[in-house]
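Entry type: protein chain
Record version: 2
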Amino acid sequence: MARLAPRRDNTLSRVLVPFLGLLLAAVGLFLVTAGVEGSSIAWGEGPGGWLSRLDTRAALESISNAAEVVAAVLGIAITVVAIVVELAANRYTHRITELFVKEPVNGLVMGFFVLTAGYCVWMSATLGGREAQGGDVPYGAVSIALAMVTLSLLLLLPYFSFVFAFLQPDSVVDRIRAHALKVVRRAARSYRPGLRSEMVTSLEQLEDVAMNAMENKDRGISITAVDALHTFMHDYWTLRDRLDPHWFSIDGSLARDPSFIAMTPRAREAVARRRQWVEMKVLRQYHTLYVEALGEMRSVAYLVSLNTHRLGTEALRAGRLPIFDLCVRFFNSYLRAGINGRDVRTAYYTLHHYRGLAEEAIAAGEAERALEVANYFKYYGQLGFAERMPFVLEAVAYDMALICEAAFEADSSGAERLLDTFLTVDKESESPEQETSLRGVRRAQVQLATFFLARGDEARARQIFEDMEQERPERLASIREELLSEVSPDYWEITDRGVNFGYLPPERRARVEDFFDWFGGRVPPVDENGLVAQDPAPARPAQISVHPKASARS
């Protein structure tokens, strides 16, 4: 799985590049002015000759005015920066203030302003004494003072550019993530108990940024923070094996962390034994963000599902099976939250990423784990069905069929049991809406049968036929016509998954009639209006609409 690359820090260049440009412009202007003055008055004195003609009073006035200007500019800069930093901290996270204060550039710029103002004040006092005594003007000191004042003024605009770049949410998120990783690196070199709390604080700040951004409808910032948590975990795993064993215990202030304080001692001990409290912390944050995003910021919930899939895949490929199992548990929690929140669309996309995790388990030879995921699919599909959200069951059937296909293509040892589980996913309907959903389950089963027929595996296709043999003819007819009529693999609206549930590739669509021939003519034809012919003695309404796109979903 590709890693999300951290954004490079270029805030310092935002100061240096414009500053150097302004400095060159100022030097050029000075040389042009000095050259003009030299040519018209005293060319032999050189480009700085005009400076030697300053008397003590003029120098004193210049330095005194410069001190006032620098002090005023410093006051304006501090006021503007304080307001902007406070606004950013209130909107995203108070950690911004801490990061800003610790940034060396701020200390250097503000220090230079203070140094310039102080130098000019002392020079004013010195020149005042010299004027009273009729002494010479210290031209070198005056030159330094004027140069420092000039540099201070030239720094002002680039510094403001730096401040606004520093306070960009993406920059703040990247700095917080980088700080958390820096703490882990320090712990890998030399463990100290306080480092865990420092890292946890940074992770909680990332969660705060995502949460506050969702409240303000800043979807892009929320997504950046969610991705930062995944990037941190990716980097953390490169250091994990070098950490001291005490790092993985849950004690002290860590035991009082909101993610662990409510756990029973037995549950905390299990997490510590598996050395996965950091993973538990990040996934709990993901779960919190997922719940908050339901119905409002679905794209954040989708990304949480995607990143959990990525984390599970990375853990599986690295042989960290307990972490893979933890990702499975959190996927179950996501589905539960989606169903409880009655957010069918989010649950639908979550199933897509959860299915990807099952397919990764099959590819890795972890058949038992894939079967476990399939059983969870069945459970949550039936739970959604019972909660009057039948499309959840239809989506479960579609994804379970794909899991079965992956298992048989990989010749997985659990393929037969996956098929048995898939054939038990449907149950009796209780309403017309649920009846439509069960039709979608049967359609997915027929699609899997065509997969077997295309592979020349008639025995398993027959197994599906036997499970459907007593199905009502009208439903079978509508399924047959939909599968034969759908020719586009893409759903006709814009969605993230973008697939058409009713589509079959041409080589499998050609086997649809072969499957339905096994019903021995019991499947009635469909007329040109897409309606099933009436049964002479129907047990249900005489006709059912079977528009080819009636139950396909993206």
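Comment: The two ends are 25 Å apart (CA to CA).
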